[in-house]
Design goal:
Radius of gyration: 36 Å
Structural class: alpha+beta
CATH superfamily of the largest domain: Bira Bifunctional Protein, Domain 2
Helix content: 40-55%
Largest sheet: 7 strands, mixed
Strand content: 15-25%
CATH class of the largest domain: Alpha Beta
CATH architecture of the largest domain: 2-Layer Sandwich
Number of domains: 2
Length: 336
């Protein structure tokens, strides 16, 4: 057996040294260390060796296995180094390099970051909520009648279990009131979903930013001061705002906000909706909570909301809202 070990060692080391590729080297490995390899077969024949000789031959067999394994690893490293050298020798270092293409912040993200920065200066904090909502958070808590068009399946994405994709980020406001007591001052940016026909000004998924301030003695003057400051910070000190009476189920009184500024071509444009929180919303939240933390006799509040996509379009003169989601590098590269 000792002579077999020596023969296998010499033949194996010779073949390893002669292997000129990784494939050839792997063949040698399988031939020697594989299940049917010479060293493996020799290990299986140890049962036929006399008991008193097994320790010595076992030691010799282990040493052979370790030597072969070490030789294989060294030869792999040598072959890899040779391959790298060949590749490096073919490189022409006088050729001009290829500069990496720099990315840019998406116009929607840029607008959101700026909006969050302004609202944080006024004491608002970020709040989040799920995209998949219950009908109570999306409609019932916001004083939306059962026959309101927004509840129709032609306008809202309903799931088989009765839940739905939120149609506005006002659901974040209801969840904040459900879990926190006044005073609260939050903004909730996020995606909203509606069954709109996709065209130059509509998407089935779009982005909103809504805000809520609830505390004792909050007035309409607080609402007007807040949104006026925000839009003037966003568009410049020469910005004009007007508040037109409107109707929303969850605010009373309610207003549409129009804006006129040089950045928007000096014409009036509808940008947002707002209003004082309807007492019915506070009553619904109080019933859900099981306390009177939102007693409309003791607290008041205002809410506002606007679409980030359309605002980004106006700020950057984008003619088609679909450009914001098509990931066309020719379009996105303009915002570096």
């Amino acid at each position: 057996m000792e002579s077999q070990l020596q023969q296998i060692r010499e033949e194996g080391l010779t073949e390893i040294a002669a292997a000129s590729s990784l494939a050839a080297l792997d063949s040698v490995r399988v031939k020697m260390l594989g299940r049917a390899g010479s060293i493996s077969l020799l290990s299986q024949s140890m049962k036929d060796v006399a008991k008193e000789n097994r320790p010595r031959f076992g030691k010799l067999l282990n040493e052979l296995r370790e030597e072969v394994t070490s030789s294989l690893e060294k030869r792999v490293a040598a072959l890899n180094a040779e391959t790298d050298q060949v590749l490096l020798s073919s490189l022409d270092f006088t050729l001009p390099g290829t500069c990496p293409e720099l990315g840019a912040v998406h116009p929607l993200t840029r607008l959101l970051n700026r909006a969050v920065e302004v609202f944080r200066r006024m004491g608002f904090v970020l709040a989040e909520g799920p995209d998949i909502e219950t009908e109570w958070h999306c409609f019932d808590a916001l004083n939306t009648p059962a026959d309101h068009p927004a509840r129709n399946e032609q306008d809202t994405f309903y799931l088989p279990d009765g839940r739905l994709l939120r149609t506005h980020t006002s659901t974040i406001q209801t969840r904040v009131m459900e879990s926190q007591i006044p005073p609260i001052r939050v903004i909730g940016p996020g995606a909203a979903y509606r069954r709109d026909e996709v065209d130059a000004t509509h998407l089935a998924q779009f982005n909103q930013l809504e805000g809520l301030y609830v505390a004792p003695d909050v007035t309409l003057a607080d609402l007007k001061g807040t949104v006026s400051f925000f839009f003037c910070e966003l568009f410049g000190s020469g910005t004009e705002l007007r508040f037109r009476p409107h109707f929303f189920p969850f605010t009373e009184p309610s207003y549409e906000i129009d804006i006129r500024t040089q950045a928007l071509g000096n014409r009036w444009m509808e940008l947002a909706g707002c209003g004082m929180v309807d007492p019915a919303v506070f009553e619904a939240v109080s019933a859900r909570r099981g306390d009177r933390a939102y007693d409309p006799e003791l607290i008041s509040g205002f809410a506002f909301g606007f679409g980030l996509d359309r605002l980004a379009m106006n700020l950057t003169s984008i003619p088609d809202i679909r450009m914001l989601v098509e990931n066309d590098m020719r379009f996105l590269s303009q915002f570096r």
